[in-house]
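Please fill in the sequence for the structure shown.

STRUCTURE ENCODING:
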């Protein structure tokens, strides 16, 4: 699929993601280079794990309803593709993002610890779609993925997060974020305190800081992935 189809943010009423049987030609054609690159990447970052992930290989968007297919690959192939600058490969980097708002109305971002793929950048808790998010019918539950990432990265108990209606689809070049709006049953100060305790107690935390966002001025000088800035600007405009 072409990454030039469209870019921007779309509010979704529904989201259906299905695992496809397709094989990723890019990964197979570059298998030797991927293995050589992986050996170097593991040496540089022993915490890397070559787990199963899913990449978007087909998208249909109509009237606020998203249907997408995703093929199965592995992290080492994805990492090679990403560090090569996301060359055209018939897929998009699709993932769920946990758009958490507190009782004070702040949107909660986390800054990823250096040494990870988004090191030093702030974003809504997000991560790869993996085996835990796929049911026995091959349906991917993106809300489950976003909630899992939020809990893993911030330590906030799932019972304290309430799913709100709809989704936010953000397309920025090769990346496709499916934002899952969540309401935290706590104030901003309490969220920052709890997440900070989780980060401090973790032996290998993914984040090194929690950053509350209230408006455009809060992100002017904040490093973040391009899709995140596109999404936040749309949310600010929405009010």
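FILLED IN BY: designer on duty
SEQUENCE:
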């Amino acid at each position: 699929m072409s990454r030039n189809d469209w870019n921007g943010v779309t509010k979704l009423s529904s989201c259906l993601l299905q695992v496809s049987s397709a094989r990723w030609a890019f990964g197979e054609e570059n298998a030797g280079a991927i293995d050589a690159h992986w050996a170097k990447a593991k040496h540089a970052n022993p915490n890397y794990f070559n787990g199963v992930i899913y990449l978007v290989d087909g998208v249909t968007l109509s009237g606020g309803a998203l249907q997408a297919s995703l093929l199965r690959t592995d992290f080492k192939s994805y990492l090679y593709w990403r560090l090569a600058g996301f060359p055209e490969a018939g897929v998009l980097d699709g993932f769920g993002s946990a758009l958490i708002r507190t009782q004070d109305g702040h949107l909660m971002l986390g800054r990823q610890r250096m040494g990870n793929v988004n090191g030093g950048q702030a974003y809504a808790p997000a991560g790869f779609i993996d085996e835990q998010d796929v049911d026995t019918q091959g349906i991917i539950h993106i809300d489950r993925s976003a909630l899992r990432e939020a809990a893993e990265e911030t330590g906030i108990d799932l019972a304290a997060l309430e799913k709100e209606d709809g989704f936010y689809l953000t397309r920025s070049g090769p990346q496709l974020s499916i934002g899952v709006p969540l309401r935290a049953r706590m104030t901003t100060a309490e969220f920052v305190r709890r997440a900070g305790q989780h980060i401090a107690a973790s032996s290998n935390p993914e984040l090194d800081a929690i950053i509350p966002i209230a408006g455009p001025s809060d992100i002017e000088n904040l490093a973040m992935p391009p899709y995140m800035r596109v999404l936040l600007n749309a949310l600010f405009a929405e009010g």
